[in-house]
Design a protein that fits this description.
The complex is a heterodimer of chains A (about 250) and B (about 400). By secondary structure, chain A is mainly α. Chain A contains 8 helices and no strands. Chain A has 2 domains: about 100 residues; about 120 residues. In chain A, helix 1 packs antiparallel against helix 3 and helix 5 packs antiparallel against helix 6. Chain A is flat, with a radius of gyration of 30 Å. Chain B has about 400 residues and is an alpha/beta fold. Chain B folds into 2 domains: about 230 residues, Alpha-Beta Complex (Spore Coat Polysaccharide Biosynthesis Protein SpsA, Chain A), CATH 3.90.550; about 140 residues, no CATH class. Chain B contains 15 helices and 8 strands. Chain B has an 8-stranded mixed beta sheet with strand order 1-8-6-7-5-2-3-4, sandwiched between helices. Chain B is globular. Classes of the chains: A mainly alpha (about 250), B alpha/beta (about 400). Chains A and B meet through helix 4 and helix 5 of A and helix 5, helix 8, helix 10 and helix 13 of B.
Chain lengths: ~250, ~400
């Protein structure tokens, strides 16, 4: 019995070591590829920056560009410097090439284990997609949060921050659900949790806005009814407290 | 620098008018009318003919009825439909359309009108500015009360005076007189705007003319500020101020060089405060500023330096009875927003939205200090403009070294 247990343990350790032995070269190769291409990217970016500085690239481009061109490259550049944009672009292209080479090296190291390759490589593309989804979702959440916040503040709504936070979390929850679904994590639990959370936030916002804007809505409804029913009444109401301020 | 022709057109004598008619007769004048219904157009045409009884005159109208038996029909010329839809300030398409007609009929002086009912005196006055003063751009100085045209008083006039060195009280034209060369220049700028897909933007004839070295004149008028057809304040504010800041960005080379010497009357004087209870508008605007301070501080902190934020913090709890937005602070706030617009620190629509409550705070302070007195309001506007001039070195420094110069 003891011998059998020991044998089983030896076999399992042996199998793990074999797997590690075939796994590690792939990992090391992919990390090495990433490191090398990143270093290459840094070197190329630095070289390009020096070259552009020597050529006075930014100044020349600024002179050539129409000042009111719709797609002015400087507008899209970090610190309004096209040379910085190009050098950073080169760096990131190198990093992405390094990742691709690393994944291919990993794949080559795992050629013998088809099951692992069939699972890991497609999953890497899913991870990339999920990261992109997360980035876009976070950006959208931030943009919409600001839009709602500024719009609500200019409408003098006291619960502007609450409203904007609600919108932000709606988008973030939606993004998180999409990311997890993309990664095939959670399954039906995620769908259920998302439905509950999303519905909960919408209901909370509806109640808050509905209760908070009760007076505002009733006033605007009354005004609409009066306008259609009796134009004289509207004139009288406006005359009661006329606004003398003209901004334009 | 612009000069104001100090002739109040309501006081012109008959001799002067006869002289003017002669001048208009000898000049080559084109009057461009805005789109309007037939009856209104007939009144406007009659006003133009009464102002310039000359056969060499041409009146451009948008919908020319060729079958009409009107004896004035021979003076009317067709005008492109590309006129502004807001029915308020002149847009880029207005200049383009006017330039096309001026070229076709070879007219040297153009009166480009945005208002439906131009008075005879206004027309004569604009023509006088072009023909007798030989100005390239002539703009009327409109009549306002203490609470009229606040955006103009808060932003358009001070920025124009401080940055361009032009003392033009209403730099966004509703009616304007242009020489042929000024119109051609404006039309080429307008064409550039249209090509860039910004056909709805406003053009700033003062900045274009100043950059080109043309003479700009302002004349006294008894016309009142026209009411915009668009009633959505936030939309109109974003449109007008967005265009102003875009123009500021486009002409950075020009305004960094120009220098304005403030006249004696506009030197910064201490603001008088009124002991009266503020009206409902002021209370509402101050309340709006407080709501904004409680919510927009994270966005403001991306745009404004700590000094300005501290000043706004001190201002937030002040009650409407004592609310006072210092002109120096307002000037710095506007300049910082102009810089953020240029650097695209945040989305430009968000930026303009975040500026709105600050403008309302300035407006509340202005209305409260003016207390309904138009003369006092004018003094306050000049004080604001003087503050913009005083803070111009700050703006220039921040514009040139946005990362290094951040007090």
């Amino acid at each position: 019995m003891g011998q059998q247990v020991g044998f089983a343990l030896q076999q399992s350790v042996h199998r793990v070591l074999v797997v590690l032995a075939s796994f590690l070269p792939g990992v090391v190769a992919s990390l090495l590829a990433l490191l090398l291409f990143t270093l290459l990217g840094i070197g190329l970016a630095s070289l390009l920056r020096r070259l552009f500085t020597a050529m006075r690239f930014d100044e020349r481009l600024a002179q050539r560009e129409q000042r009111d061109s719709a797609a002015n490259i400087a507008d899209w550049s970090p610190s309004r410097s096209p040379s910085l944009l190009i050098s950073r672009g080169v760096l990131w292209v190198c990093v992405f090439v390094g990742i691709a080479v690393g994944v291919t090296a990993f794949d080559a190291a795992y050629a013998s284990s088809s099951a692992m390759t069939a699972f890991v490589l497609p999953y890497l593309t899913h991870i990339t997609g999920a990261i992109l989804l997360l980035l876009v979702g976070t950006f959208m959440a931030r943009f919409l949060e600001r839009s709602v916040l500024i719009g609500a503040v200019n409408a003098q709504l006291h619960y502007a921050r609450f409203l904007s936070l609600g919108v932000k979390w709606l988008v973030l929850v939606l993004t998180a659900a999409m990311v997890l679904d993309h990664l095939h994590i959670g399954g039906a639990v995620i769908e259920l949790a998302f439905g509950i959370l999303f519905g909960g936030i919408v209901l909370t916002l509806s109640l808050a806005v509905g209760l908070g804007s009760r007076d505002f809505v009733s006033r605007s409804l009354e005004r609409g009814i009066e306008k259609t029913a009796d134009p004289v009444a509207t004139t009288v109401r406006e005359n009661e407290s006329p606004s003398t301020v003209r901004h334009f | 620098m612009a000069t104001s022709i100090g002739n109040d057109i309501s006081n012109t004598d008959p001799e002067g008018e006869r002289e003017l008619s002669q001048a208009a007769l000898s000049s080559d004048l084109l009057v461009c009318l805005p789109p309007m219904v037939r009856e209104t157009r007939e009144h406007a045409t009659a006003a133009v003919l009464a102002a310039f009884p000359t056969a060499s005159l041409r009146i451009a109208v948008t919908e020319l009825d060729t079958l009409s038996a009107d004896p004035t029909q021979s003076l009317l010329v067709p005008y492109e439909e590309a006129r502004n839809q807001t029915g308020w300030a002149l847009h880029v398409t207005d200049y383009l359309a006017a330039a096309t007609v001026a070229r076709k009929y070879d007219k040297q002086h153009v009166l480009l009108l945005g208002s439906d009912a131009p008075s005879e005196l206004l027309l004569q006055s604009l023509a006088r500015g072009l023909t007798q003063s030989h100005a390239d751009v002539v703009m009327p100085r409109l009549q306002t009360s203490a609470t009229d045209g606040l955006v103009n008083s808060a932003l358009l006039y001070p920025m124009t005076r401080a940055l361009l060195g032009q003392d033009i009280r209403f730099p966004l034209p509703h009616n304007i007189g242009l020489s042929r060369r000024a119109l051609e220049r404006l039309a080429s700028e307008a064409q550039r705007e249209v090509s860039a897909g910004r056909s709805d933007s406003l053009l700033w004839p003062v900045s274009v003319a100043t950059a080109a070295g043309y003479s700009v004149r302002q004349l006294d008028s008894n016309e009142h500020l026209p009411v915009p057809a668009v009633t959505d304040f936030n939309r109109l504010f974003a449109e007008v101020i967005g265009s102003l800041l875009a123009d500021t960005e486009a002409r950075a080379i020009n305004w960094q060089r120009s220098r304005y010497v403030a006249p004696a009357h506009s030197a910064g004087e201490p603001l008088a405060t009124s002991a009266q209870d503020p009206d409902a508008d002021v209370v509402s605007m101050v309340e709006g500023f407080r709501v904004a301070y409680a919510n927009l501080l994270p966005i403001w902190s991306l745009v404004l330096p700590p000094q300005s934020l501290l000043a706004l913090k001190k201002l937030a709890p002040v009650p409407p009875q004592a609310f006072l937005f210092p002109p120096e602070l307002w000037a710095r706030v506007v300049y910082d927003f102009a810089l953020a617009f240029h650097l695209r620190t945040i989305n430009r629509n968000h930026l303009l939205g975040a500026l709105t409550p600050l403008y309302l705070a300035w407006a509340a302070s202005h209305i409260r200090c003016a207390a309904g007195d138009a003369t006092e309001a004018e003094r306050l506007v000049h004080a604001t403009a003087a503050a913009f001039e005083a803070e111009k070195p700050y703006f220039v420094s921040r514009w040139r070294w946005p990362d290094r110069f951040n007090p």
